[in-house]
User: Fold this.
Amino acid sequence: MSLDVRQFEAGEIVFRMGDEAVAAYVIERGAVEILITKDGEFERINMLGPGALFGEIALLDGGTRTATVRTLAATHLIAIQRSQLESLLAKAEPVVQYIVRILLEHVRRASGGAPGEARTLSELLALAVKTGETPELADKLKHEATRMLTLATNLVDAIAEGQLELHYQPIVNFTNRRLAGFEALIRWRHPTLGMVRPDEFIPLAEKTDLIHRIGEFVVQQALADWPMLKPLCDGAVEGATPFMSINLSAPEFCKPDAFERIAQSLKTHRMAPQELRIELTETVIISNVEVVSEVIHRLRGLGVGIALDDFGKGYGGLDYLQSLPFSCLKIDKSFVDKMHQSDRSKQIIQSTLELSSRLGMSTVAEGIEDKPTADLLAQMGCVYAQGYYFARPMSIPAIREWDAARQA
Ligand code: C2E
Ligand code: CA
Ligand code: CA
Assistant:
């Protein structure tokens, strides 16, 4: 986003009392005076210099200006449009949106333009409703914010009290439709909220050191469960070993001792490095390309597989394939889904499969939900399949049942 800098000569009016308010300003250089009109004359109520912000109520609720602002010298102002803030806010987390709304109400009240007497959070929220939001939206926001705050607060206990568990989703070999490996997917069995999915709490954990404890848990648990899961893998084709995929996020993979810890865990659990596969997304890679590249090279040297996850979802996938020694490409569900919409998408997948095979990588197609998709991908030469059509992620007891049922 480029800065909108506006230049004024000394004595120019920036805005007048009663004007429609659409932007706030930060003084980059120069000075302004804030004036109100009294008995038909301007009266100065304040002077502001570089770094000061004025007109900010506009950012919150628009309306009209309650004072006039005039420059005292040649002045540069950085304008912040209300629409800019709104679009940034729309992308912000619910907690941030919620807090901004509450602050907004405080500012409104303090500035005298306030609609109300609100004190509690819900009263403030009700006011937000009055100022143009639908009750449903406000309720949803409040619900999301409360849930997020609850999860963030409870996460420490979750780890200590063993509420985290790993579920495993089978990955199937397309050639014989039998089991080639598993992907470990974390779940949080929350005492009151039920099962919480990783998309909700991993981003919260990533903001604190908790992510390291989660990463440690995932590695230890997955490796500990492997002796039970490995014998179920009856679909490995020649030369291939059964494998366990785990997901690691940026802070976990970029730790100074990431390689040593993984190597040590493999030893402790007597797992062959070739049986472990670490899935990394583009986000992890771009977080710190140099460190990630070094860890990937060292792990590959040891024999550990590295998969580029969610391929086709981001932008830079091809770039990384050139420079990093991935052993596997995971084609994202969104990409797989598009295959049926157009021949073009199908061609892209076909080329991806060929490229991957030329680079000596295997491919896993993710999120396969029906037979036509599975059959088409198999026909196109994809090596591995993962998706609800074959099996959902399951707890260890559920996997035992699932395995017994498929053998029967
Ligand atoms: P991912 O690595 O892309 O994992 C695949 C996600 O797709 C999983 O969601 C899985 O349950 C879901 N999935 C599999 N097959 C299908 C299907 O046929 N249809 C649909 N609609 N979905 C399918 P899940 O378990 O909710 O995980 C979401 C994301 O959370 C994962 O995406 C991964 O990025 C992250 N994650 C999961 N476990 C861990 C973990 O242990 N550590 C870290 N750092 N991240 C994790
Ligand atoms: Ca994954
Ligand atoms: Ca994925």
Observations:
- The chain has two domains: 5-153, 162-407.
- Residues 183, 247, 279, 309 surround calcium ion (ligand 2) (CB under 6 Å).
